[in-house]
Design a protein that fits this description.
- The protein has helices spanning about 5-20, 25-30, 35-50, 60-75, 80-85.
- It has a domain at about 25-80.
- The N and C termini lie far apart (about 50 Å).
- The chain is an all-alpha fold.
- The longest helix has 18 residues, at about 35-50.
């Protein structure tokens, strides 16, 4: 007994569901995604601070500052859904 006898059809169906939900204007979104950039910077700073012990010039609160910037960017630059219609 196989768990999923027609796995190719199931995989194709799952991929079509994922593909239908992709963002149609990815380039425009990535140009304006400042909150994502701040989150990526915060993750990089946090990884550097926790893995490289000689990084004393980076303050511990820099990660919090970048995450706060991401939150602020999300609130300021994200359009209101009611304005799109």
């Amino acid at each position: 007994m196989r768990l999923l006898p027609d796995w190719r059809r199931a995989l194709a169906r799952a991929w079509s569901c994922v593909r239908a939900r992709l963002i149609p204007d990815v380039e425009r979104v990535l140009k304006r995604a400042w909150s994502l950039r701040f989150i990526e910077l915060a993750a990089a700073v946090d990884i550097i601070l926790n893995t490289v012990p000689s990084m004393d010039f980076l303050p511990w609160w820099l990660t919090l500052l970048l995450l706060g910037g991401a939150w602020t960017a999300r609130l300021i630059w994200q359009p209101d859904p009611a304005e799109k219609d």
